[in-house]
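TICKET: design request
STATUS: open
ATTACHED STRUCTURE:
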């Protein structure tokens, strides 16, 4: 994954624009552009979007759901239950965990 500085530098070089030229377009300094490109500072999304826009490019952000090892179908099924039943199941699970906590150590000791 590219950093914001890498994205800006690649776009600037793609368009054959110097740091100084981009700085003039953005009403800032060449050193400010340099700090962003070297990842010394992290620009806001709005600033990065504006700098890329000045180069003739659009910043497109995307959010993707990732698999975090969660069984989403189980969550959906539990959320479909009435609250009282969800609470009862949660308490039953907590009791199960309490009863079985350290179960491996006990089995290991018996061996």
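STATUS: resolved
RESOLUTION: sequence designed for all positions
ATTACHED SEQUENCE:
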């Amino acid at each position: 994954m590219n950093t914001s500085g890498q994205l800006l530098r690649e776009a600037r070089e793609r368009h054959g624009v110097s740091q100084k030229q981009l700085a003039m377009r953005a009403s800032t300094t060449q050193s400010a552009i340099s700090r962003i490109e070297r990842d010394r500072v992290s620009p806001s999304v709005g600033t990065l979007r504006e700098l890329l826009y000045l180069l003739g490019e659009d910043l497109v952000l995307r959010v993707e759901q990732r698999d975090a090892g969660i069984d989403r179908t189980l969550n959906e099924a539990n959320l479909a239950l009435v609250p009282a039943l969800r609470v009862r199941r949660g308490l039953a699970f907590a009791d199960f965990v309490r009863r079985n906590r350290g179960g491996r150590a006990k089995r290991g000791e018996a061996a």
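CLOSING REMARK: Helices lie at 4-14, 19-26, 30-37, 45-54, 72-79, 83-100, 103-110. The chain has two domains: 4-54, 72-110.
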